Structures are given as C-alpha cells and as structure tokens.
Amino acid sequence: MEKFKFELDFEENLMQSTISKALKKSYPPSVLREAVEERKINQQVHEFLSDQGLLSMLNPLKQGDVNLMLCTILVNEAGRRLISFPLIEHLMALYVLKEEATSKEIEDFEAGEKIATLGWKENVEFEVNDGVHYVNGLVKSIPFADESDQIIVPIRKDGQDQVLILKTEGIKDQLRSVKTQDLTYPLYELNLENVKIDHVSTRLIHLDLEDFYRVADLLIAAELLGISQESLQMTLDYTKERKQFGVEIGKFQAVKHMLADMHLLSESSKVSIEFGAWSVENEGEDHDIVSTIAKAYSADAAIRVVESSIQVHGAVGFTWEHDLHFYLKRAYRLANMNKTAYEEREKVASYFMGDLSPVNNKKIETVFS
Amino acid sequence: MDIKFSEELEKYREQAREWLESALPKWWHDYVDRTSDEKRYKNFLHSWDKKLDEGGYSGISWPKEYGGRGETVLKEMVFEEEAGRIDAPKGHNFLGKILLGPTLLTYGTEEQKKHFLPRLVKSDDIWCQGFSEPNAGSDLASLQTKADLDGDEWVITGQKVWTTEAQNANWCFVLARTDFAAPKHKGITYFLVPMDAEGVSVRPLRKISGEADFNEIFFDNVRIPKDHYIGELNEGWKVAMTTLSFERGILALGRQARFQTEFERAFEYVEENKLPGGDDVLENHYFRQKFAQSYIDLRIMRYHSLKTISDYINNNGKLGPEVSLQKLYWSEMRSRLGNLFMEAQGDDVHFSGEDSPSANYFTNIYYTTRGETIYAGTSQIQRNIIAEKVLNLPR
Description:
The complex is a heterodimer. By secondary structure, chain A is an alpha+beta fold. Chain A is built from 12 helices and 10 strands. In chain A, strand 9 and strand 10 form a beta hairpin. Chain A is globular, with a radius of gyration of 21 Å. Chain B is built from 13 helices and 8 strands. In chain B, a hairpin with a 2-residue loop joins strand 2 and strand 3. In chain B, helix 5 runs parallel beside helix 9 and helix 11 packs antiparallel against helix 13. Chains A and B meet through helix 7, helix 8, helix 9, helix 11 and helix 12 of A and helix 5, helix 9, helix 10, helix 11 and helix 13 of B.
C-alpha cells in the first residue's frame, strides 16, 4: 500500500485530547462568564499553558521544527473554550522575537512568566530627527495589552516590512481600553506621541513578514474552527434533547439539513487548516496561498455555523442566557484580525490572476499550447 | 500527515501528461472548435475508450490477473487528475469502470471477475447503470423492477430511468426486487443484464442541454442466466451502496482538476471578452470577489479530495458515510460555479450554437451542474446521510 496519510498522527491526536480535557476542566462555561466580567487573563489557563511548555512551542519557519500542526491543534482547542488568554498573540509575538532577540531575552516569554501580545492594526509613522527615529500614531486591536510586558506591531507598508517592538512598561498610560463586541477578549489601543526608538524599550526591526502572516492566518483559522466545532456540538446536543411536537427537534429534516450544512462548513474549514499546516511547514502545494484560503473560508464558515446554531436553538440562542452570542462575536473579531474576508479574497484574486504566478498557471499552459 | 506524492508518482504524472497531450488532437483543446464538426467530435468520443486501453491507462489499479495494470490506487488518481486537468473525454465506459469495476472486485465471484473485468478494461463491453426508476429516485430501495427465478433463468420486468450511455452500452448493472415479502432494503439483488437480450428496449431522453445521452430502459420478461448477479441473493442493497460510495467520493481528485480547468477558462473568457457592461474583470471588484471565492472553494475541494483518497487507501479501499460530505461539497460548489459562469457571460448567455461565443461551453457546464445536485443521491439525501450516519441524529 502507498504511503499517503491525510490524518493526524498519534502524537497530534494525543495532544489534542490532552489539551481538550485540560481546558474543559480549567475553563468551563461558568469561568467564561466570570472572565467576561473581569476582562483579565485567566490565571488557571495561563498556568496550564506555561506549565506544559505550550507557549514556546511555535518556532519560525526558517528555523525548522515549526510545530505548526501542533500549534493549530492548541489554538483550535482554545477556540472551542473562548479562553481568556492572548494565545495567538503570544505565540506570534514570540515568533518574531525568536527571529530577532537572544535566547536570554526571550526565556521569560517562553516560560510564560512574561506575556507578549500583538498590535493587529496600526496607523503609525516614523520621523527622523538628528539621526534619531521617532514613532507617532495609533496601534490598534491589542489584546490584553494592560497585562502584557511587550507589544509587537507588524507593519507592512509600501512594500516594506518592519516590526515595532515596545516594552509595555512606561507606556501603560498611553493605553486605552476599547469597547468591543467580543467581550471575551479585551482590546486596547495605544497612542504613540513622539516615542523615541531607543533600541531598548522601543525597537524597530526589519523583518520579512510573509512567513509571519502565513502562520498567523492559519492560527486564526484554527481558532475560528474551534468556534465552529463547539457551536455545532452544542447545537447537536441541544437537538437531541429539545422536544417540540412531542419529538426531539433533531428528528426534523429541516433541522437535520441545517446541521449537515454546518458540519460540512466545519469539516471544510478543518481540511483547509490541516492541509495548510502541513503545506506551509513542508513547502507543499499552495503553501503561499493556503493560509489566506483557510482564514477566509474559516471566518465565513464560523460565522455561518454560529448563526445557524442560534437559529436552531430558537429564542434562547438570541439571548445572553446562552453562550452562543459570545461565539458569534468572537468569530467576527477573529475574522477581522490581519485582514478582512474581503481583503483576503482580494489577495486570492491577485494570486490566481497571476500577480504571484500560481503553480497551476504553468500546468494549465500545457492545455492551451 | 504525509501527503506528498512520491517521485515515482510524479514521474508517472509526467508520463500520463505526455500521453494525454499526444492522444488528444489540437482541436480538442479549443472548446469552441471542439464541437464545430459534430461528426469529428462524436467519432473521437467513440474512439477514446480504446485509446485509453492502448495507452495503458485503463484498469490502472486493477490486479493483473483480471486484465488490469496492477498499479497503485494513487497512480490511478494521478491519471484521473491529469485527465481532468487537460479536460480529456471520460469515455463511454466511464461508469462501468468507476462503478461496476470496483464493485465486482469487492463482491464478484472469481469467475465473474475473470470474465467481466478484462472485457471492461478493453471496453469490449460498455456498461450502464440501472438503478433509478420512475417511482424510485431518492427512495431508491422502493424500486419495483422484479426478477423471478424460472428454472435456470431469471426473468426481469420493469423500467429504469435517467440511464446515461444506455444507447451505447451492451450491458447494464440492474437492481431488481427478488423478494417482495422482505423489508424493502432486504429483497433486492444486483443483476448483470445484457442489453441485447430479448425484451430490452431503450428510449432516449433529451437533457436540459439538448444532448440525448440519457435514457429510459424497459425490461419486458428479459431472461438472463441464473448466475448473473453480484454478491448474495437479496443482498443487492449492500452491493449498491458500495457502488454509490465510489460514485460519490473517490473520483474527486480528477473532478476537482476538471473544475479548476473550467474555472480558469471562464476567467480567461471574461478577461478576453470583458465583463457584462464592458468592465475589465481585473478591475471589477464584484467579479474579482466572486472568482476569488470560487478559487477558495475549488482549492478546498482539492484538500477534501486528498483526504478522501487517504481514507480510502488507509482503510482497505472502503469509504464510509463521510463521502456524502464530499458529494455535497463538490456538487453544491460546482452549482455555484455554474451560476458564476452564466452571470459572467452577460448578454452572450442566451445565445446558442455558433451564435454563442463559447459555443455553449459554459452554458453546458451550468446545465450539467443542475443535474449534479440530483444524481448519485440528491443534496437532500446527502444531508440526511450526514445527519443520521455521521452526526447520529435520531431517525
């Protein structure tokens, strides 16, 4: 028989079930409700992630041993529980730091003793005065910034990639807690006024961000998948319990068909992430576009799955009596991290229209020649 | 995870591609020219099954003892993928090879395999599928075509419908009821019926596209030898489900490649012909977004296909109810592609023949997609299967 396996291996499955159990235990729905009130990093989750060494798992593509599949599994499980911890941000911030900083400088972050987060959006400008660089403007969508030790801001402008690295200490009074729809994930913005790039507390480095976005998009997609899966699971359980007209509503074809469509959306998102993690790590087929595909698809899928879940739950799904609305709002936030679905599709359009010369174009030439 | 095709497979792919390029005439690649000479087009279609066999691309993964090439399933998939990519014809014996062949390999007797499989490989026999009936579509198990044993012969009476290629076939695999007292899934047997037997008649049906490769078949006291069935007597439903799992799932890689080629052609078409309203497609965000979404959907179809193939080869050639996800995904996706192709043609969409700039190429794809959410189990039946057999919802 041929060697060809599109399924998680033993270690990956084991990790998935271990994390799933641990997070279910340390972060049950009651804790989610508390977290929404507190708007703080959940200490139990923080401890679990640190103790298990999960926060240092992701490595830069260039350095090998990326552990991308394992990280998508971790983030996927976190997505199911809506955990109150900047997981993707911490992993991705370390991704940058591992390329740039010395191992001594990052050991506290790897151990989870210090927290790094990301500024997903920015509108900053740099000025040079007497050979000294200053930064001005707004960094936006920074999860859990007030509890972080460093804020990493990827900047892609005019074909140039840079990363701004800020120590949070000293600029905390410039942080503003932003009112957001997603109550499970506090966001901040940071107003920078003539902040000096002093190479100590504020640094600016040049770094090719292509790999960064590729990995980040896959992790976002994995968290969105968790939202789809958990929302579907809650709905499945509900349809087997809830009775109307004397029978479980799961017996009605109208309901069955909705659940089948939800499952298909969720499974399609899943294959795109599993294939994507493998392909990006192994430079396989579509490795330069699959993350964008996975993220765009998973975002639409998660929103549709939660919307259907709300519909199947009836009126309770439409209220705060149920947790579904947290899932919907988190899906919308995640969908807009990095790029919006519209922008992701524009990127895909440019890709197949030849700007990035997809492999497939070459193959198709043989058809027309 | 290990989803990299080996070097050997890639070499095989190169070979297959070279062969396909040499076997297909230049005019085939130009979809407008392709059908401009109907006789030339039809003759070429008729010759394709034999060409495939001569090239060594028939029965690729079937055992050598049954006339196959004894190659791996992955090689067969790779060939299907290349054939799809270059938009090669499928051949008249397509259904025989993809549906009956694997079913015979699973359930056939040694004698049946030795007799029928080599003839299938060489396309000495052309097969069609006798499943649906006028009153048994989605509820296939309620079929009423009956077979009675009379001495050493079965006597078959009934009607089948929506039968592709029946006009070219000399054999038909037929589901018929052999026990009317048993529950409906239990009394069915999977028969092999020669189309030239006395009492078999075929009436062509014109499809929405105007093509007439669809038929009704009437069986009027057709007598066939006692041993002309596959699997156990009254166990035909189980055998038929194997057939359907192949129809639903395993061809996905080749299908995806074909859809991707069509997609690229549609994009080139609007690039050359401008969009409805005269816009350049590259600058029109409505169509950019729609094409991009289709591209995303198509790539995900490919990942799904790779997973199905992995499930197939790592599970001893068996496919579970999960193939319904595959079928629902691709048929619904291609139906959206069909809609996009219609919309992108603008005013050209309602012209036909030589007055259609694409010689109906895109419109025919659209028409085909209207059938794909129906055949091999409608989308509604697939959703039932997913809900009940995969998600375990109560019946």
